[in-house]
């Protein structure tokens, strides 16, 4: 799946170069393209949050306006080289704050590789043991690198400076019946914008956060437990009222995430939903006043207005789009996933109309970077 996204990533890097240049970050930080060379005098580089597409797992990189980096979780075991490359492409060297929300494989999966390949300054994790080999080897890596480790608890302020705050809101209790409830939940505030990262916290922890007197109101919510129905309880969502909700989950995952109940609850409170299984890596950029959301999959369709960052040059998409001259359609491609199917494949029935691209000749789909569906073998 990731290889089909590589071409798009190149386009994405070009876009980010432009975007970052326009909000004051050195363009070299992302890419060497000479598309944009102007340096603004504004030293405030803004805040960028990358919800990495690690399939059915979590991994969120935050580039703070003060130049520091926060990494929340590290995908599944096996995502290490993908995450490492992504971070290296962004010139990340130090990770000042590494939050491991809870010791499930889909959150600490590649933590060891991150610890061994980057300078990690501080690790935040809940005070709970897990019995897996992965957990033990992760703890050993932390010990070997002698990294300061701090147990997560509500009210722990990781960063507390004017205009920039990063605070943990959980876990409150010593014991829970579910490992997910131990999740370290973090709230980030940058001037007038805010983000809530909930790991896999479920309704018990949500209730505790509601009772904890915290300001939960946030513009962006990383939806709890991959959109599972036992998270995102309605009272919690009413307190958060996120304008944007990000769901990190894998395509056709065996848990059925995100659950329809969660999607309905998010829609009911009027939140715009973005999913990594549909869009790939999702990027939220804040200038302290407004947040814009984009992704490295849908270059031609900005998800939210990008005007606040100056509209980037849209790559010439004429080569990518197929307008069938002959009315006969033999194959249907998905613009987001860059996979193409036979017209009678069940995936086509589920596909959004706006995502469909039609092909008469198979080779045209292949030439345009689409890969054949593994189910219908077009
Ligand atoms: Zn999880
Ligand atoms: Zn979990």
From TrEMBL:
Pfam family, one: Ada_Zn_binding
Domain of life according to the entry: Bacteria
Biological process according to GO: DNA repair; regulation of DNA-templated transcription
Signal sequence, renumbered to the chain: 1-21
Alphabetical UniProt keywords: Activator, Hydrolase, Signal
Lineage, broadest ranks: Bacteria, Bacillati, Bacillota, Tissierellia, Sedimentibacter
Protein name listed in UniProt: Beta-lactamase superfamily II metal-dependent hydrolase
Molecular function per GO: DNA binding; hydrolase activity; methyltransferase activity; zinc ion binding
Domain Metallo-beta-lactamase: 56-251
CDD domains to which the protein is assigned, alphabetical: ComA-like_MBL-fold
Claim: Hydrolase is one of the keywords in the record: yes
